[in-house]
Amino acid sequence: MLEIKNLSINYVGKDSITKAVENVSLNISKGELLGIVGESGSGKTTLVRSIMGVNPPSAQISSGKIIYNNKKILDSEDDFITGDYKWREIAFIPQSAMNSLDPVYRVIDQMREILIIRGNYNKKDADKKSEELFKLVGLEKNRLRDFPHQFSGGMKQRVAIAMALALDPKIVIADEPVTALDVIVQRQILDLFNDLRDKLGLSIILVTHDVSVVAYLCQNVAVMYAGEVVERGAVKLILENPFHPYTMGLNNAFPDLHSTDNFLVPIDDTITNELNELKKEYNSLSLNNKNLVESEKFKSLQSKFTNLNTSSLKKG
Amino acid sequence: MSTILEFKNVSKYYDVSRNIKEIFSGAKPKVRAVDQVSFKIKNGESVGIVGESGCGKTTLAKLILNLLSPTSGEIIFENKNINTLKNIEDIQEFKKKLQFVFQNPYDALNPRFTIRDILLEPLKSLKFNPSDYNELINGVMDLVKLNDSNDYLNRYPHELSGGQLQRIVLARALIINPIFVVADEPVSMLDVSVRAGILNAFNDAKKTMNFTAIYISHDLALVKYVCERTIVMYLGSIVEDGPTKDVISNPLHPYTKALVKAVPVPHVNQSHDPLPILGNIPDATKYYKGCKFSDRCPNPTNDCKQQNTKMGLVEVKPGHWVDRCCANCV
Amino acid sequence: MIAEIYKIFKENNYATIGVCIYLFFILVAIFADLIATNDPLRINFSSSGLARNLPPSWEYFLGTTSNGRDIFSQLIYGSRNALAVGLSAALAVAILGTIVGLISGFYGGWIDNLIMRLADIALGLPFLPFVIVLAAFLGPSSWNVVIAIGLLLWPNAGRIIRSQVLTLRERGYIESAKVSGCSNFRIIFFHIAPNILPLSFLYGSIAIGWAILTEASVSFLGFGPSDVISWGYMLQDAYSSQALSLGAYIWFIPPGICIVLMVVAGFFISRGYEEILFPKIKK
């Protein structure tokens, strides 16, 4: 459905160019729950914002393109082609969306804004749709006339989700939707995402720094580090058999509530230098080659990575 | 091991502004930030205080540090009631022994001071011997592992990363050699890859310096890594208190059960069952005659709502305490 | 801090222009004795009697006033008065406003209330009439303006500084200073003050312009001292000698321009302060 091909984005400053996203390729299909994991600065927010075209002007697409349903929506040559799909086909819930609800308007007015202006509903239909949306996200419809400050954090996030779903999109992109929430409310929101995917056949891209959230909710995951996707695949595979030291580091950096191990491995800067050497070798192998996994070169690379990780464990 | 800190029925209530209805009905709504809390902490323990936002854990931290005064109850540190300390020397002595690690490393350091000045501040305020300054500074930089070739001491806070800043915050807390450290969500604002480093530094420091630590967090998994004992708070009251391993593997209180189930883990095979808890966190000023958790409990009994139960904890297993009302259901 | 300031001025054109203007006038004031060609108060005579309303010449660069005084020299010496009044008034406002703002903001409670009510009174008093009344009591003097500005204009700076202190007071590092046993005095003057000083400078530089303008108005109205040459005095002199109808533009335009330049320079410098005021916390 949505394809990102070799996308590279740079931020152009006064006298410097920062590479935010480097040669990223991703796909998402219908009904898929994709997680993008990485810490701040890894480029994941820039990446998803480029899908929606809401990056600041200093962000330049240096190469690559984004294709939705066989139509180009972003191209390094033409920059932005059309904004028609925004909110209608692909919706975006930005980071701390719940804090960006306008405090002086009732929620129903803010929903109307989207439905009437972008969706061409009339007022009566818009209100009816708002009621349906609220029901879908688990809020009572009589709360439509409340102001944002009368909602708790979790409920505000549900309002943000309802707004994203207003025009029946096929893909929803959520940037750190549960980071600021308490763990019980977090669980409820994640269950809500799962529910929506079952009911509406939505595809969801979840951007987060918390690998456990992705483990709970998503089927596939892309791990980003320093602007690149360093590992991509099914969540089960990646978590149980991580290939890249950063992913291994991520796993070990999250204390597991139920495990009996009692160590945490910090991800060390010095490791990444050795890492870059190995990465060059790794990139020279073609990833699409299924027979690759069995090849000797691959296995030796994998053992090198494992050794790197074990040595970092000893240091930690 | 002796008791170093004791809370005896400590409460901190705040009055809230009233709307017209409330003024006329004579109601005086209060926010019960900390509600008749009692516990004892032994020398050398590391205790985690867990709860969601609004449960009162930050207020508790400020009460311990004497940044706030309790509405009622006694806070006893080393056998002295800290709210009745009037003598300046006594107060300075108290401050030498207790320190605080903050949540927000970007906010916790004066942006106009160099790192060296920041570390010198507590030494100057508490009148340490100037000839010891350098030794103490180097010692504490070693402890937090910022003693590599980079010259951190002459830099400003905006030149360091979040993880480095938090290490400086830790260093500043430890430089006066406190015997009690309170850490309020010290890693929640840091990136994932950096958290482990800070937690390890914290643990190492504790082993070396042997202080008592209270570690406040909403994240059970982190608390498990650092603390032997866990206290769970809900709406200003303690609902469970016991060894961390027991609290997590065998929670007794329904709120703890829900918390433990709600924490996502980095494994694929997690249960997606609905949580054993109803509704949302209620309004902070709501007054409960009986058990505070009764409206969210999955199995409330009639007694729970009506009983004007004396608050308190009951020792269900050795060292493992639970709120009196819910002890009945265990 | 010096390095920061230098960098900002290098990048920010307005601030640089402002500083240059100030420097220029400061140099003029310092070397007035060398630059001015005549004694500004001396009544000059020419071959045909009183050297009145003479057009610009090599002897008198900007001509003479109706009383035969050298306009150019008056302009040069006027800078001294302008700077003396401007700088002292600015200092008074900045110091008083800062101290009051710090104490009021940090302690709160009744101290804050008391100070803010004093501020309200000060703001309620009309400015020029106050100066005029002072002149009536203390005799006309440049210092009337300085006193009046100090007494009446500190609330502007004080209020803004107070609200900044209210924010800073809640910051983590202030709390930690308290936990580390820092005395209130030390917190106010070593922790909070450095973060406030840029604002003080800002208000100070605006006050310089305001002071000069006010001093000019007071002199223009005739309530200033008559034995000290100031640009305002020159304007008053020109007006009462009907310079406009005489077409003696060269008399009143130069002092007017100088006043404007000084005021504008103050505002330009304040634009350069934005970066100092809001240091980036993380790069």
Count of spatially separate domains of chain C: 1
Shape of chain B: globular
From the spread of the alpha carbons, the general shape of chain C counts as elongated
Main beta sheet of chain C: strand number and arrangement?
Answer: 2 strands, antiparallel
Report the uncertain regions of chain C. Answer: none
At the first level of CATH, the class of chain C is: Mainly Alpha
The percent range for strand residues of chain C is under 5%
Number of helices of chain C: 12
Q: What's the oligomerization state?
A: heterotrimer
Q: Give the biggest sheet of chain B.
A: 8 strands, mixed
Q: Low-confidence segments of chain B, ≥5 residues, pLDDT <50?
A: none
Question: What integer is the average pLDDT of chain B?
Answer: 82
Global structural class of chain C: mainly alpha
**CATH architecture assignment of chain C:** Orthogonal Bundle
CATH topology of chain C: MetI-like fold
H-E order of chain B = EHEEHEEHEHHHEHEHEEHHHEEH
Q: What would the average pLDDT of chain C be, to the nearest integer?
A: 81
Radius of gyration of chain C: 22 Å
Q: How would you describe what is shown here?
A:
- The complex is a heterotrimer of chains A (316), B (330) and C (283).
- With 316 residues, chain A is α/β, with parallel strands linked by helices.
- In chain A, 39% of the residues lie in helices and 23% in strands.
- Chain A has 10 helices and 11 strands.
- Chain A has a 6-stranded mixed beta sheet with strand order 7-8-9-3-10-11, sandwiched between helices. In chain A, strands 2-1-4-5-6 form a 5-stranded antiparallel beta sheet, covered by helices on one side.
- In chain A, helix 3 (123-137) crosses helix 4.
- The relative contact order of chain A is 0.13.
- Residues 286-294 and 311-316 of chain A have low confidence and may be disordered.
- Chain B has an 8-stranded mixed beta sheet, with helices on both faces.
- The relative contact order of chain B is 0.14.
- Chain C has one domain (2-29, 85-281): MetI-like fold (Orthogonal Bundle), CATH 1.10.3720.
- In chain C, helix 7 packs antiparallel against helix 9.
Task: Summarize the entry for a quick read.
Chain A is an alpha/beta fold and 316 residues long. Chain A has ten helices and eleven strands. A two-stranded antiparallel sheet of chain C has the order 1-2.
